[in-house]
Every structure is written in C-alpha cells, then in structure tokens.
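G., the chain you wanted modeled:
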Amino acid sequence: MAVYMIVELEVLDPETYARYVERVPALVQKHGGRYVVRGDAVTPLGGGWDPERIVVIEFESADQMERCFASEEYRQLAPLRESSTVSRSILVEGCLPAEAA
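Predicted structure as tokens:
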C-alpha cells in the first residue's frame, strides 16, 4: 500500500535550503518516490495551522521510503536541510479506492 511522507517546513536559510532542493528530488525518484506536493502556496483552512511550506512524497511502501532516507546519499544531504529549516514530518498510509468513500 502506498505511503505518504508529509513534511512541514519553515525555511531559515534559503541559500542552503536551495542546495538541498537541487539534489534531493533525483534521490527520491531513484528510490521510487514521487512528489505529490512541493510548494509554498499554502492556504490555512482552520485550526490555527499556517505552515510556510508543505511537501508530500508518495512511496509504494514504508520500506521503500525508509531505504531512501536511510541511504548514505541522503545522509550526506540531510545536514543541508537540518541546518536551513525547522521541519516536522509524518508518514501516513494511503487508502484503497473503495475505502476512500
């Protein structure tokens, strides 16, 4: 079943974060991930949540996602994100089409 990594970001250092953004999409794709949402156009709808940036990445499985972000390639990129943002992330399972109703 598909899983979705949802990341909320506040960018503190745009130049360093840009270096991360230049390199991480190819790595995500290499590991079978697909960006579903990647942007700054966030419209708050209630509950006091007003994130600056949201990223959603789809993977075929949690194992696939874990392999991507545990890879040596990602471990080399992670400090760029960690030093340039405040971020929170969660992993959620998708649902089968019949369950969506």
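The beta strands are 3-11, 34-39, 53-59, 85-93.

Shout if anything looks off.
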